[in-house]
UniProtKB/TrEMBL annotation:
Cited InterPro entries: ClpP/crotonase-like_dom_sf, Enoyl-CoA_hydra/iso, Leu-rich_rpt
UniProt-listed PANTHER family: ENOYL-COA DELTA ISOMERASE 1, MITOCHONDRIAL, ENOYL-COA HYDRATASE-RELATED
Pfam families linked: ECH_1
Keywords on record: Acetylation, Fatty acid metabolism, Isomerase, Lipid metabolism, Mitochondrion, Transit peptide
Coiled-coil zones: none
Described purpose of this protein according to its UniProt entry: Key enzyme of fatty acid beta-oxidation. Able to isomerize both 3-cis (3Z) and 3-trans (3E) double bonds into the 2-trans (2E) form in a range of enoyl-CoA species, with a preference for (3Z)-enoyl-CoAs over (3E)-enoyl-CoAs. The catalytic efficiency of this enzyme is not affected by the fatty acyl chain length.
Assembly mode: Homotrimer.
Protein name: Enoyl-CoA delta isomerase 1, mitochondrial
Localization of this protein: Mitochondrion matrix
GO CC field: mitochondrial matrix
Annotated pathway: Lipid metabolism; fatty acid beta-oxidation
Length: 286
Protein backbone atom coordinates (compact mmCIF):
# COMPACT_ATOMS: atom_id res chain seq x y z
CA UNK A 1 0.00 0.00 0.00
CA UNK A 2 1.26 3.45 -0.83
CA UNK A 3 1.91 5.55 2.25
CA UNK A 4 2.29 8.69 0.19
CA UNK A 5 -1.41 9.39 0.35
CA UNK A 6 -1.49 13.15 -0.09
CA UNK A 7 1.19 13.38 -2.78
CA UNK A 8 -0.51 10.58 -4.69
CA UNK A 9 -3.41 12.96 -5.32
CA UNK A 10 -1.49 16.21 -5.38
CA UNK A 11 -0.40 16.05 -9.04
CA UNK A 12 -4.05 15.60 -9.98
CA UNK A 13 -4.99 18.67 -7.98
CA UNK A 14 -2.30 20.69 -9.71
CA UNK A 15 -3.45 19.41 -13.08
CA UNK A 16 -7.02 20.45 -12.29
CA UNK A 17 -6.02 23.97 -11.33
CA UNK A 18 -3.70 24.41 -14.28
CA UNK A 19 -6.44 23.43 -16.68
CA UNK A 20 -8.61 26.44 -15.75
CA UNK A 21 -8.54 28.31 -19.09
CA UNK A 22 -8.42 31.83 -17.71
CA UNK A 23 -6.58 34.00 -15.27
CA UNK A 24 -7.77 33.81 -11.68
CA UNK A 25 -7.99 37.04 -9.73
CA UNK A 26 -4.71 37.71 -7.92
CA UNK A 27 -4.47 36.17 -4.46
CA UNK A 28 -5.32 38.49 -1.66
CA UNK A 29 -2.27 39.74 0.19
CA UNK A 30 -4.18 40.18 3.44
CA UNK A 31 -2.63 38.00 6.08
CA UNK A 32 -5.18 38.63 8.82
CA UNK A 33 -7.81 36.41 7.20
CA UNK A 34 -6.47 33.47 9.14
CA UNK A 35 -3.93 32.82 11.80
CA UNK A 36 -1.56 29.89 12.31
CA UNK A 37 -0.13 29.35 15.76
CA UNK A 38 2.51 26.64 16.10
CA UNK A 39 1.91 25.18 19.55
CA UNK A 40 4.86 22.78 19.27
CA UNK A 41 6.79 21.07 16.49
CA UNK A 42 3.98 18.52 16.36
CA UNK A 43 0.79 20.54 16.03
CA UNK A 44 -0.63 23.94 15.14
CA UNK A 45 -3.85 25.88 15.61
CA UNK A 46 -5.32 27.20 12.35
CA UNK A 47 -7.90 29.95 12.95
CA UNK A 48 -10.22 31.23 10.22
CA UNK A 49 -10.81 34.96 10.55
CA UNK A 50 -13.01 36.36 7.80
CA UNK A 51 -15.91 38.17 9.51
CA UNK A 52 -18.83 38.15 9.59
CA UNK A 53 -19.26 34.40 8.89
CA UNK A 54 -16.04 33.00 7.32
CA UNK A 55 -17.82 32.62 3.98
CA UNK A 56 -15.61 31.05 1.34
CA UNK A 57 -15.05 33.04 -1.82
CA UNK A 58 -12.46 32.22 -4.50
CA UNK A 59 -9.64 34.32 -3.07
CA UNK A 60 -10.18 32.96 0.43
CA UNK A 61 -10.33 29.36 -0.80
CA UNK A 62 -7.06 29.92 -2.66
CA UNK A 63 -5.41 31.31 0.47
CA UNK A 64 -6.64 28.39 2.58
CA UNK A 65 -5.53 25.88 -0.05
CA UNK A 66 -2.03 27.40 0.01
CA UNK A 67 -1.95 27.06 3.77
CA UNK A 68 -3.01 23.39 3.63
CA UNK A 69 -0.11 22.84 1.20
CA UNK A 70 2.20 24.58 3.65
CA UNK A 71 1.14 22.17 6.41
CA UNK A 72 1.75 19.19 4.13
CA UNK A 73 5.28 20.40 3.37
CA UNK A 74 6.19 20.20 7.07
CA UNK A 75 7.09 16.58 7.86
CA UNK A 76 7.38 17.22 11.61
CA UNK A 77 3.86 18.58 11.87
CA UNK A 78 1.48 15.79 12.88
CA UNK A 79 -1.76 17.64 13.40
CA UNK A 80 -3.82 20.80 12.98
CA UNK A 81 -6.66 22.13 15.10
CA UNK A 82 -9.01 23.96 12.74
CA UNK A 83 -11.14 26.64 14.39
CA UNK A 84 -12.38 30.19 13.93
CA UNK A 85 -11.70 33.56 15.52
CA UNK A 86 -15.06 34.84 14.28
CA UNK A 87 -17.52 35.11 17.14
CA UNK A 88 -20.29 32.50 16.97
CA UNK A 89 -19.49 31.16 13.48
CA UNK A 90 -17.09 28.43 12.37
CA UNK A 91 -18.13 28.81 8.72
CA UNK A 92 -21.32 29.60 6.78
CA UNK A 93 -19.97 27.74 3.74
CA UNK A 94 -19.46 29.05 0.24
CA UNK A 95 -19.93 32.81 -0.21
CA UNK A 96 -23.40 32.89 -1.73
CA UNK A 97 -22.42 35.99 -3.72
CA UNK A 98 -20.09 33.71 -5.71
CA UNK A 99 -23.12 31.66 -6.76
CA UNK A 100 -25.69 34.41 -7.33
CA UNK A 101 -25.75 36.17 -10.74
CA UNK A 102 -22.38 34.59 -11.31
CA UNK A 103 -20.23 34.40 -14.38
CA UNK A 104 -19.67 30.73 -15.45
CA UNK A 105 -15.87 30.94 -15.62
CA UNK A 106 -15.61 32.44 -12.16
CA UNK A 107 -18.08 29.84 -10.87
CA UNK A 108 -15.95 27.09 -12.39
CA UNK A 109 -12.83 28.43 -10.64
CA UNK A 110 -14.71 28.66 -7.33
CA UNK A 111 -15.87 25.08 -7.62
CA UNK A 112 -12.40 23.78 -8.55
CA UNK A 113 -11.04 25.57 -5.48
CA UNK A 114 -13.78 23.97 -3.35
CA UNK A 115 -12.85 20.55 -4.75
CA UNK A 116 -9.16 21.23 -4.07
CA UNK A 117 -9.92 22.20 -0.51
CA UNK A 118 -11.92 19.06 0.18
CA UNK A 119 -9.37 16.78 -1.53
CA UNK A 120 -6.50 18.33 0.42
CA UNK A 121 -8.34 18.18 3.75
CA UNK A 122 -10.08 14.81 3.42
CA UNK A 123 -6.95 13.30 1.85
CA UNK A 124 -4.43 14.64 4.35
CA UNK A 125 -2.54 12.09 6.42
CA UNK A 126 -2.23 14.59 9.23
CA UNK A 127 -4.61 14.71 12.20
CA UNK A 128 -7.26 17.41 11.79
CA UNK A 129 -9.42 18.29 14.78
CA UNK A 130 -12.32 20.68 14.17
CA UNK A 131 -12.84 22.95 17.19
CA UNK A 132 -16.33 24.24 16.38
CA UNK A 133 -16.82 27.56 18.16
CA UNK A 134 -20.05 28.49 16.35
CA UNK A 135 -22.37 27.80 13.40
CA UNK A 136 -21.21 25.08 10.99
CA UNK A 137 -23.29 25.31 7.84
CA UNK A 138 -23.31 23.92 4.28
CA UNK A 139 -19.71 23.61 3.04
CA UNK A 140 -18.63 24.55 6.58
CA UNK A 141 -20.31 21.33 7.72
CA UNK A 142 -18.59 19.34 4.95
CA UNK A 143 -15.25 20.80 6.10
CA UNK A 144 -15.91 19.82 9.72
CA UNK A 145 -16.95 16.30 8.66
CA UNK A 146 -13.69 15.95 6.70
CA UNK A 147 -11.64 16.42 9.85
CA UNK A 148 -10.75 13.42 12.02
CA UNK A 149 -12.63 14.61 15.11
CA UNK A 150 -15.15 17.33 15.98
CA UNK A 151 -15.50 19.12 19.29
CA UNK A 152 -18.29 21.70 19.54
CA UNK A 153 -19.23 24.43 21.99
CA UNK A 154 -22.11 23.79 24.35
CA UNK A 155 -24.56 26.39 23.09
CA UNK A 156 -28.08 25.42 22.07
CA UNK A 157 -28.28 28.33 19.62
CA UNK A 158 -25.34 27.03 17.60
CA UNK A 159 -26.36 25.26 14.39
CA UNK A 160 -24.76 22.54 12.31
CA UNK A 161 -26.06 21.00 9.07
CA UNK A 162 -26.65 21.25 5.34
CA UNK A 163 -29.87 22.82 4.02
CA UNK A 164 -28.98 22.71 0.33
CA UNK A 165 -32.30 21.16 -0.67
CA UNK A 166 -34.25 24.23 0.51
CA UNK A 167 -32.53 26.22 -2.21
CA UNK A 168 -33.10 23.52 -4.79
CA UNK A 169 -29.54 22.19 -4.58
CA UNK A 170 -28.79 18.48 -4.68
CA UNK A 171 -25.64 18.23 -2.53
CA UNK A 172 -22.69 16.87 -4.55
CA UNK A 173 -21.94 13.16 -4.18
CA UNK A 174 -18.66 13.77 -2.31
CA UNK A 175 -20.56 15.81 0.31
CA UNK A 176 -23.10 12.98 0.61
CA UNK A 177 -20.33 10.39 0.90
CA UNK A 178 -18.51 12.41 3.56
CA UNK A 179 -21.74 12.58 5.56
CA UNK A 180 -22.51 8.89 5.05
CA UNK A 181 -19.02 8.07 6.35
CA UNK A 182 -19.74 10.21 9.41
CA UNK A 183 -23.34 9.42 10.43
CA UNK A 184 -24.38 6.52 8.18
CA UNK A 185 -26.64 6.24 5.14
CA UNK A 186 -30.09 6.50 6.73
CA UNK A 187 -29.31 9.55 8.86
CA UNK A 188 -27.59 11.23 5.88
CA UNK A 189 -30.62 10.60 3.72
CA UNK A 190 -32.94 12.17 6.31
CA UNK A 191 -30.54 14.99 7.01
CA UNK A 192 -30.07 16.08 3.40
CA UNK A 193 -33.57 15.28 2.14
CA UNK A 194 -35.26 17.22 4.94
CA UNK A 195 -32.63 19.99 5.33
CA UNK A 196 -31.99 19.11 8.97
CA UNK A 197 -30.18 21.57 11.18
CA UNK A 198 -28.99 20.34 14.57
CA UNK A 199 -27.99 21.92 17.85
CA UNK A 200 -24.83 20.48 19.46
CA UNK A 201 -26.65 17.91 21.62
CA UNK A 202 -28.67 16.60 18.65
CA UNK A 203 -25.48 16.48 16.57
CA UNK A 204 -23.67 14.55 19.29
CA UNK A 205 -26.47 11.98 19.52
CA UNK A 206 -26.23 11.50 15.76
CA UNK A 207 -22.43 11.21 15.73
CA UNK A 208 -22.10 14.31 13.57
CA UNK A 209 -19.81 15.69 16.29
CA UNK A 210 -17.76 13.74 18.83
CA UNK A 211 -17.76 15.91 21.96
CA UNK A 212 -19.38 18.99 23.47
CA UNK A 213 -17.48 21.30 25.80
CA UNK A 214 -18.03 24.75 27.28
CA UNK A 215 -16.63 27.51 25.09
CA UNK A 216 -13.81 28.33 27.53
CA UNK A 217 -12.57 24.70 27.26
CA UNK A 218 -12.85 24.34 23.48
CA UNK A 219 -9.19 24.84 22.68
CA UNK A 220 -7.72 23.24 25.79
CA UNK A 221 -9.79 20.07 25.20
CA UNK A 222 -8.85 20.06 21.50
CA UNK A 223 -5.18 20.30 22.45
CA UNK A 224 -5.57 17.51 24.98
CA UNK A 225 -7.04 15.21 22.31
CA UNK A 226 -4.37 16.27 19.81
CA UNK A 227 -1.52 15.54 22.23
CA UNK A 228 -2.91 12.05 22.89
CA UNK A 229 -3.20 11.28 19.20
CA UNK A 230 0.26 12.63 18.39
CA UNK A 231 1.60 9.75 20.51
CA UNK A 232 0.05 7.09 18.25
CA UNK A 233 2.64 5.53 15.90
CA UNK A 234 2.57 7.88 12.92
CA UNK A 235 3.00 5.47 10.04
CA UNK A 236 0.30 3.07 11.21
CA UNK A 237 -2.09 5.95 11.92
CA UNK A 238 -1.48 7.42 8.47
CA UNK A 239 -1.89 4.09 6.71
CA UNK A 240 -5.13 3.46 8.58
CA UNK A 241 -6.47 6.89 7.60
CA UNK A 242 -5.52 6.28 3.99
CA UNK A 243 -7.16 2.88 3.88
CA UNK A 244 -10.36 4.29 5.43
CA UNK A 245 -10.60 7.28 3.07
CA UNK A 246 -9.03 6.44 -0.28
CA UNK A 247 -12.15 4.95 -1.86
CA UNK A 248 -14.30 8.02 -1.08
CA UNK A 249 -11.50 10.36 -2.10
CA UNK A 250 -10.94 8.56 -5.40
CA UNK A 251 -14.59 8.97 -6.35
CA UNK A 252 -14.11 12.74 -6.64
CA UNK A 253 -10.46 12.73 -7.80
CA UNK A 254 -11.46 10.54 -10.77
CA UNK A 255 -14.64 12.45 -11.47
CA UNK A 256 -13.79 16.11 -11.07
CA UNK A 257 -14.91 17.34 -14.47
CA UNK A 258 -18.38 15.80 -14.17
CA UNK A 259 -18.72 17.30 -10.69
CA UNK A 260 -17.71 20.76 -12.02
CA UNK A 261 -20.18 20.59 -14.90
CA UNK A 262 -23.02 19.41 -12.64
CA UNK A 263 -22.37 22.26 -10.22
CA UNK A 264 -22.24 24.91 -12.96
CA UNK A 265 -25.37 23.63 -14.70
CA UNK A 266 -27.41 23.41 -11.50
CA UNK A 267 -26.22 26.77 -10.13
CA UNK A 268 -26.89 28.66 -13.38
CA UNK A 269 -30.43 27.29 -13.52
CA UNK A 270 -32.83 30.30 -13.47
CA UNK A 271 -35.01 28.72 -10.78
CA UNK A 272 -32.02 28.20 -8.49
CA UNK A 273 -30.82 31.75 -9.19
CA UNK A 274 -34.24 33.02 -8.18
CA UNK A 275 -34.09 30.99 -4.94
CA UNK A 276 -30.59 32.27 -4.19
CA UNK A 277 -31.72 35.88 -4.68
CA UNK A 278 -34.61 35.41 -2.23
CA UNK A 279 -32.37 33.61 0.24
CA UNK A 280 -29.76 36.36 0.15
CA UNK A 281 -32.46 38.98 0.66
CA UNK A 282 -33.81 37.04 3.67
CA UNK A 283 -30.32 36.91 5.20
CA UNK A 284 -29.82 40.64 4.68
CA UNK A 285 -33.27 41.48 6.09
CA UNK A 286 -32.48 40.00 9.52
C1 LIG B 1 -27.48 25.94 1.13
C2 LIG B 1 -26.53 25.30 0.14
C3 LIG B 1 -25.78 24.19 0.77
C4 LIG B 1 -25.04 23.39 -0.22
C5 LIG B 1 -24.46 22.20 0.44
C6 LIG B 1 -23.63 21.44 -0.45
C7 LIG B 1 -22.24 21.63 -0.09
C8 LIG B 1 -21.44 21.97 -1.24
C9 LIG B 1 -21.80 23.31 -1.83
C10 LIG B 1 -21.77 24.34 -0.84
C11 LIG B 1 -22.52 25.46 -0.96
C12 LIG B 1 -22.55 26.39 0.13
O1 LIG B 1 -21.86 26.30 1.10
S1 LIG B 1 -23.64 27.68 -0.06
C13 LIG B 1 -23.64 28.53 1.46
C14 LIG B 1 -24.85 28.18 2.24
N1 LIG B 1 -24.75 28.79 3.53
C15 LIG B 1 -25.79 29.07 4.28
O2 LIG B 1 -26.95 28.80 3.92
C16 LIG B 1 -25.57 29.83 5.59
C17 LIG B 1 -26.31 31.13 5.60
N2 LIG B 1 -26.02 31.90 6.78
C18 LIG B 1 -26.66 31.76 7.92
O3 LIG B 1 -27.54 30.89 8.11
C19 LIG B 1 -26.35 32.75 9.00
O4 LIG B 1 -25.71 33.88 8.41
C20 LIG B 1 -25.43 32.21 10.13
C21 LIG B 1 -24.17 31.56 9.61
C22 LIG B 1 -26.22 31.19 11.00
C23 LIG B 1 -24.99 33.40 11.06
O5 LIG B 1 -26.11 34.08 11.52
P1 LIG B 1 -25.92 35.53 12.18
O6 LIG B 1 -27.27 35.96 12.65
O7 LIG B 1 -24.81 35.49 13.17
O8 LIG B 1 -25.39 36.45 11.00
P2 LIG B 1 -26.22 37.01 9.73
O9 LIG B 1 -26.78 38.35 10.10
O10 LIG B 1 -27.16 35.99 9.21
O11 LIG B 1 -25.06 37.14 8.64
C24 LIG B 1 -24.09 38.16 8.71
C25 LIG B 1 -23.80 38.64 7.31
O12 LIG B 1 -23.20 37.56 6.59
C26 LIG B 1 -23.94 37.33 5.40
N3 LIG B 1 -23.84 35.88 5.09
C27 LIG B 1 -24.19 34.85 5.86
N4 LIG B 1 -23.91 33.68 5.28
C28 LIG B 1 -23.35 33.98 4.08
C29 LIG B 1 -22.83 33.20 3.01
N5 LIG B 1 -22.80 31.86 3.04
N6 LIG B 1 -22.35 33.86 1.95
C30 LIG B 1 -22.34 35.21 1.91
N7 LIG B 1 -22.81 35.99 2.88
C31 LIG B 1 -23.32 35.39 3.97
C32 LIG B 1 -25.35 37.79 5.71
O13 LIG B 1 -26.05 38.09 4.53
C33 LIG B 1 -25.06 39.02 6.53
O14 LIG B 1 -24.71 40.07 5.64
P3 LIG B 1 -24.96 41.62 5.99
O15 LIG B 1 -26.42 41.74 6.35
O16 LIG B 1 -24.58 42.34 4.73
O17 LIG B 1 -24.05 41.91 7.17
Amino acid sequence: MSINFYSKFFPLIKKGVASVPFQLRPLSTRTDLFNVENKSEEYAIFRLNKPPVNSLNLEYLNLLNNQLDEFERNPKLKGIILTSDVKSTFSAGVDILEMYKCEPKRLEAVWRAVQDFWIKLYGSKKIYIAALNGHVLALGCAIAMSCDYRIMVDNDKTKIGITAVLLGINAPSWVKNTMINTIGFRETEKSLKFAKIYNPHQALKLGLIDEIVSSDKLLSRSEEVMKTWCKIPTLAREMTKESMRSETLGKLVNNREVDVQEFITSTMDPHLQDNLGKYLASLKKK
